[in-house]
Amino acid sequence: MLLALAAVVLFIEEWGWRPLTAMAARLGRWPPLARLEALIRQVRPGVALVLFIVPAAALFPIKLVALWLIHVGQTALGVTVIVLAKLLGTAFVGRLFLLTEAQLMTFPWFVRAWTWWRATKARVGESVRRSAPWRAARALRVRWRRFRRRGDA
Q1: Is 75 helix (H, G, I), strand (E, B) or coil?
Q2: 107 DSSP assignment
Q3: What is the pLDDT of residues 107-140, one digit of tens each?
Q4: Contact between 11 and 84 (Cβ < 8 Å)
Q5: Using only C-alpha atoms, what is the Rg of the chain?
Q6: DSSP string of 60-96?
Q7: Is residue 55 classed as helix, strand or coil in its secondary structure?
Q8: Cβ-based neighbour number of residue 151 at 10 Å
């Protein structure tokens, strides 16, 4: 069960991170946001840490409300809130991380935490990739691509 939960988190973090932060970067080209991003890139490390942690922590109460909605029978709304919070949070916090990474890496504890996260994500990813459902899904995807290529020929 934990592996399945880890797989979902890994999926959102790994495959959601790039497109969502790219979307946030496109939004960041809008002149007012571009100016704000330029300021964020230049802040001191302590300010960068606050800018990174506060939005991530602000998502926690939203997720609690979503769980409460599920508890009171509003399952679809609760799941929708969780998914939207995760998507928007990944985009926003991911973009903030990219803007403040240099400043954040000046904190030795942050470097250790980041290193731990990357190693843990790699271990979980490897476990997921070795699992039977993952291998079956990958084989199905390969067969689907072969089928589509034959149809195009």
Answers
A1: helix
A2: S
A3: 999 999 999 988 988 887 788 788 888 788 888 8
A4: no
A5: 19
A6: HHHHHHHHHHHHTT-HHHHHHHHHHHHHHHHHHHHHH
A7: helix
A8: 7
